Amino acid sequence: MSDISVIRVRDLLMVTLPSDPDDATVSALQHQVLEAMQKREPKGVVLDISAVETLDSFFARTVAETAQMVRLMGGRTIIAGMRPAVAITATQIGLTLGKIETALDVDRALEMVARGDGNIGGQK
Amino acid sequence: MTAVSQGEIQIATESDILLARRAVREAATQVGFGATDVTRIVTAASELARNTFLYAGRGTMHWTRCELHGREGLELKFVDKGPGIPDISLALQEGYSTGKGLGMGLPGAKRLMDDMDIQSAPGHGTTITVKKWRKT
User: How far is A88 from chain B (nearest CA, A)?
Assistant: First the structure.
């Protein structure tokens, strides 16, 4: 089982989630991301969830909370690469990711940051 | 049929939720569900397994391949001897929670599956059975 990878790419933290993380790994995500925010002072976080096969309410809540915390620290979070089956399931179950910005894939997420458009997710 | 047609997973620790998800993913794939339905079933299983762990501490998930009028399906049964659910219709309400969860697990799982049955006696435990049928 792979862990969460957090690397810095230019001004961003690239966080890649494994396909089926257990609860402890999901909880560690929050800690790892916030610590990296403080240490490496990026402008924001790109959460690559393209490998994620199951997004249940616990996982979704942790991701939404993490984005909220990153925002309080002055950064933006873009969730990238949600699979169609995951998007369908999340919508059906009533999960929302709040006001977090989303992108089709990591490439588009990086484009959004490069263009400096903070309005794609509906807010600055 | 050469494929395994049933199995069970003990749910006693947080990481057993992951084992339950894996077993259900494999079973649902074997039954022949498409990618979206597999995701729905695994997500429902994750919510119910987490409920078992959160509210009862421990329990068992049984999965069975089933058939009805020529349609193949998958049944998941979560059995625990926990405190039980005093008010099932309340527990099925969106956003209702006794504080440990989000209040989305039970109603969410119900929406993802075709059928849900809840048997619960306060003080004696809870049995939740969900089914999903393959299309066509």
Answer: 8
- B29 has a chain A CB within 8 A of its CB: no
Q: Which residue of A has its CA nearest to B49?
A: A56
Element (H, E) at B65: strand B59-68
- pLDDT tens digits in sequence order for chain A, 124 residues long: 457 899 998 889 999 999 999 989 999 999 999 999 999 889 999 999 999 999 999 999 999 999 999 999 999 999 999 999 999 999 998 888 878 999 999 999 999 988 876 544 444 4
Amino acid at site B31: V
A-chain residues within 8 Å CB-CB of B43?
A: 54-56, 89, 93
Q: Domain A5-115 in CATH: superfamily?
A: STAS domain (3.30.750.24)
In angstroms, rounded to a whole number, what is the distance separating the alpha carbons of residues B36 and A77? 26
Decide the pairing of beta strands A76-80 and A44-48: parallel
Residue B46 located in a structural domain:
yes
Q: What is the ipTM of this complex?
A: 0.87
Residue B25: which CATH number?
3.30.565.10
Q: Look at B35 and A93 and tell me if their CB atoms are within 8 Å.
A: no
Please indicate whether, in this complex, the C-beta atoms of B36 and A95 are within 8 angstroms of each other: no
Q: Which residue has the tokens 């929670």?
A: B97
